[in-house]
Amino acid sequence: MKLQGRVAIITGASSGVGYETARVLAREGAVIAAAARRRDKLEWLVGEIAGQGGRALAFPTDVTDPTQVERLIDGVSNLLGRIDILINSAGLMLKVAPLEQFSNSEFRAVIETNLYGSFYTARAVIPHMKRQRSGQIINIGSRVGKIGVANIAPFCAAKFALDGLGQSLGQELRPHNIYVTTLSLGMVNTDIHPLNPSEAFRNQLMTARDVAEALLWTCMLPPSLRVNDLQLMPRQVDL
Fold first, then answer.
1. What is the pLDDT at residue 192?
2. Dihedrals phi, psi of 230, to nearest 5 degrees
3. What is the C-alpha separation between 233 and 179, in angstroms, rounded?
4. Which residues, in sequence order, are CB contacts of 64 under 8 Å at separation 6+?
5. First-last CA distance in the chain
6. Hey, what domains does the chain have and what are their CATH numbers?
7. DSSP conformational letter for 113
8. Ramachandran area for residue 81 (φ above 0: left; ψ -120 to 50: alpha; else beta)
């Protein structure tokens, strides 16, 4: 098993990319700390992984709450002894609309989930990784975090900022043998976006399993090949 004995925290693990990533990494021997708000979905995931011979623990967490995030990171460290991988997969688009149709609370919710959630988890995990002199932080970015797209301005803003956060952290942490990667995705066939495309359109998109396998590959890269920015866009599909 390629990740035998490594401990991976995965946020947004109750569905989509986070869910599939937890299953794929567990398949390769990683111990999974699955974090999301929906306890029932996490417990289902933990049971599924256990049924396939893997090990996972559920940590119900709202990543927009720094207190809950601190509890998550400390709990994983105390229970499992180390944290090797953090994958920030929690994401929210909310709706597709012109900017003037977003309320203050809607804009804030998108920013808090996609940007602040990754900030809180990274800030909390860094001291643990520094003590063990190793670690990987992988943020789920987006093509629209590099080239803006109309009618999803809050999501674009969050992903642009996340890209900058990852680049800065990568420079800060590399001397500590901690590597930060932002995996920028094209459009993925998950429920994160409120579009309702046709089945033919959906069939052109990457799947959550495609992304999970790419994340596994990223986790297995030797330190000499780890980079700040990777892009996974096998199919160019515009919103």
1. 53
2. -130, 150
3. 22
4. 109, 112, 113, 116, 117, 120
5. 38
6. 7-232 (3.40.50.720)
7. I
8. left
* Nearest residue to 159 (alpha-carbon basis) of 93, 100, 86, 210: 93
pLDDT digits 0-9 by tens, 100-113: 999 999 999 999 99
Strand partners, 85: 8, 136
pLDDT level of residue 98 (50, 70, 90 thresholds): very high
User: Where is 128: in which H helix or E strand?
Assistant: helix 117-132
Alpha-carbon distance 143 to 82, whole Å? 32
Q: pLDDT tens digit string along 117-149? A: 999 999 999 999 999 999 999 999 998 899 999
* Three-state secondary-structure class, residue 20: helix
- How many CB atoms are closer than 10 A to CB 203? 11
pTM passes above 0.85: yes
User: Residue 8 and residue 29: Cα distance in Å, rounded?
Assistant: 10
Nearest-angstrom CA–CA distance, 69 and 90: 12
Report whether 135 contacts 179 (CB < 8 A).
Answer: yes
